[in-house]
């Protein structure tokens, strides 16, 4: 944060607030028709570097360093990543500058290097329950500790028709198993 302040990106002290995309401005607690008492939620953004070769849709970015930015509420679990999730028909946000118009389908199968992950390469895979209006619309997957991730990965492994429908290759899914990272008394190291 100090670095941002030094280069002039932060001009005042921080004050977390709720932002209304509908109105395009911050809104105080009593300004909201619903959600009074709701506080901002803190996400950690994980920069995952895209690995060449780029798919055709991302060809215009060839030769550049390209990152997917995944949002997580649990950065301590990043060592257990097996993949990243995208909503197949979800639009990738166009702000602040749109270099390429993409949907989640365009990202499926994208090989990624993610910091702290034990796997050298993980892949972007389809998950149908992602909300594109929360975080970045890209979600890291830690099936050892997140039940939704466990079930979505299991569905991809057990349902070849679903893999086929989303053009998911077996090698993007089948070799990836749960990576135990947190041991919870009474639940073990695969709590999900």
UniProtKB/TrEMBL annotation:
Organism in which the protein naturally occurs: Prunus dulcis (Almond)
BP GO terms, sorted: leucyl-tRNA aminoacylation
Gene Ontology MF terms: aminoacyl-tRNA deacylase activity; ATP binding; leucine-tRNA ligase activity
Name assigned to this protein: Uncharacterized protein
First and last residue of the signal peptide: none
Keywords, in A-Z order: Aminoacyl-tRNA synthetase, ATP-binding, Ligase, Nucleotide-binding, Protein biosynthesis
Top-level division of the source organism's lineage: Eukaryota
The keyword Protein biosynthesis appears for this protein: yes
Family: Belongs to the class-I aminoacyl-tRNA synthetase family.
């Amino acid at each position: 944060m100090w670095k941002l302040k030094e280069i002039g990106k932060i001009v005042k002290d921080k004050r977390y607030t709720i932002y209304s995309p509908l109105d395009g401005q911050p809104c105080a607690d009593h300004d909201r028709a619903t959600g009074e008492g709701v506080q901002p939620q803190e996400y950690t953004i994980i920069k995952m570097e895209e690995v060449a070769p780029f798919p055709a849709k991302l060809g215009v970015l060839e030769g550049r360093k390209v990152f997917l930015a995944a949002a997580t509420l649990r950065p301590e679990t990043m060592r257990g990543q097996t993949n990243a999730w995208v909503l197949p028909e979800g639009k990738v946000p166009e702000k602040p500058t749109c270099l390429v118009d993409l949907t989640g389908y365009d990202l499926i199968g994208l090989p990624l290097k993610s910091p702290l992950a034990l796997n050298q390469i993980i892949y972007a895979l389809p998950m149908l329950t992602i909300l594109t209006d929360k975080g970045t619309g890209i979600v890291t997957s830690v099936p050892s500790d997140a039940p939704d991730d466990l079930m979505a990965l299991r569905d991809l492994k057990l349902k070849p028709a679903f893999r086929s429908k989303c053009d998911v290759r077996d090698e993007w899914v089948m070799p990836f198993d749960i990576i135990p990272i947190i041991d919870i008394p009474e639940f073990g190291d695969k709590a999900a």
